[in-house]
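User
Please review the sequence:
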Amino acid sequence: MRPVAGIGLRSPHLAEIGRDRPATGFLEIHAENYLGGSSARQVVERLRESYALSVHAVGLSLGSVEGLDEVHLGRVAALVKRLEPALVSDHLSWSVHGGRYFNDLLPLPYTEEALDVVVRNVERLQEVLGRQISIENPSCYLGFAHSTLTEPEFLDELVRRSGCGLLLDLNNIVVTAHNLRLDARDWLAGLPGGAITEYHLAGHAVNDCDGEPILIDDHGSRVGDEAWALFGEAVRRYGARPTLIEWDTDIPALPVLLEEAAKAERVIQQAVSNAARAA
């Protein structure tokens, strides 16, 4: 997919987008919302005529030591085969244990043991889909004392061993860096930039925790200034990629999402122009 800005397709906007086909670079869906034969899925299938699609899974639990749920994997694979999206992704996290699904994307310790588990699961996912998938960096609220790798080092090894791509979420870096007292630009500099296939941008909330501000990745507001600045830095450092505006809580009117995407598009096009002049 060429570097353009798109929006997440959410149910409040489904009928409007299906009817009006507003101008945006691509649409991203959450895989688990469209695994059945619902009317919403039928709308998405028709939207393939007008938009490139990205399928973003949230329930594959790539960090599960038990391996992937083959039934769920098969349903996701059938959806991907049907929609033929330009991009497929999931998260560096786990959410399943003993057949029980947790309503969250839970963190991993960054150790060799955890790396082996994720590599094995990513390889299985790519084998079943017959294509490369991209892994999204998580938002972190604590660090594991026994981690032996930094998050960028873990991602670098994951890319090297599995051949996966990276979905770089700039807001998640802002949240992680603030909560763990890291430097966001140092974090960014440690990545395998050539593996980045997509950027995500979203807003976050600020909560008070015993007098300390904690950032929460709630996807409930406009993209913040820090994330915009880090996005600009990432594009300058690694180049333009397809870029998504995520908004999952307190979802606004569609024009607000399109306005945010247009802002991202301006950053992308400036980077493309600069690269063309340099060439």
Observations:
- The mean pLDDT is 95.
- The longest strand covers residues 100-106.
- The chain has one domain: 5-278.
